[in-house]
Design brief:
- The protein has 13 helices and 20 strands.
- The chain is α/β, with parallel strands linked by helices and 435 residues long.
- The strands form 5 sheets. It has a 7-stranded mixed β-sheet.
- Strand 12 and strand 13 form a beta hairpin.
- The longest helix is centred in the middle third of the chain and has 16 residues.
Amino acid sequence: MTTFLKEITIIGGGFAGLSAGYDLARAGHKVTVLEADDFVGGLAGAFEGDGERIDRFYHHWFTNDLEVMGLIENLGMLDEVVTNPTNTGVYYNKSVFKLSTPMDLLRFSPLPFMDRIRLGVLTLRARGVKDWRRLEEKTASEWLRQLGGARVYEMMWEPLLQGKFGPYAEKVSAVWFWNKLKLRGGSRGSAGEERLAYFKGSFARLAEATAEAIREQGGEVHLNMPAKSIAPLPDNRWAVEANGNRFESDVVIATPALPLIADMIEDWAEADYLNSLRRIDYLANVCLVLELDRSLSSTYWLNVNDPSFPFVGVIEHTNFESPETYGGKHIVYLSKYLPHTDELYAMSPDEVMQFSLPHLKMMFPDFQDDWIHRFHVWKARWSQPVVEKHYSQLIPSETGPREGLYICSMAQIYPEDRGTNYAIREGRKIARKLA
């Protein structure tokens, strides 16, 4: 019979929970992961395509995402990672402009030449910021106006902020935007082109491999097991009630969205602490995935700087990973971040498709309905925390309100933004603390 050091329950089978569970299981602890969905990976879930499975939401890694590469190496799967150059562009005034390299920027005719220079200098100055704490007192709009001037902001950055954060656009911290510029600027090849990495067969494969590694170490991963409550026990242990089951352990690590954690502990936690968990706002996401019989364009990542187009980006995944991987189909993602009360979020998949078609035909005049082989609509309620000014003072500590309860959610990834690389970093960090 195996003897374990501690029993640890992890709520959530996304990359934070799985990476924490993987390290803790290897360190000799009895790990139980409870996942509400019928798959692991969280936002990195996948569905069946013609050939390889397809990510529900678009994904890639930057070449400087070292945490995820460390986990992949531990799992012996480095040969499953592919790195390719990508094309980035911007849709502005009914035209697509390539913006992948410094030379593309110099040719970006909608901006006067001196503003193109200001835009290039802005990105260099942003990458040169060493102390992000100096930016906490500024909004992104304030900071970007100061760095690049009003015209650069209004043409390039304001539409992206509005498209991403909608009613929260003017509240978003400069720290959030700085991190985006830093990450993209640091993932480039020798000629200045952006280079990105992908995992063969979908990001879900990596999540599943991590879950299987937990099981191989004697741990358990339960699907369709939504946690309802977390309660302290008289013997300093913990009980988690999930789908009519009770799981007792020495430690609980909770990884869902902070308001959901608040709901799980509201029977005993103090009001001020519960309010702090519910203080941070989250945006939802609607993602329309198209399987097409031909390509829309040669661009991988198309930022949309047109307020009349309802999606913030058009990501043609098969301009990054080959269409042959998906039975010759071309995979396109249209992403929209929005409040969960928005009308689009309440639409059925057919309604989302019909709503989107006129806008697609406006952007791509040759587009025809019969190009569509299949379409899919995926929604995520807790998709993007709204990173405001002084965000470091808003996020809760990883140590919960009582000993033995830890919190490791996407809202605590700061100054970086949510993403698999940093979810893995935070999960492994809390595992080191416990192990």
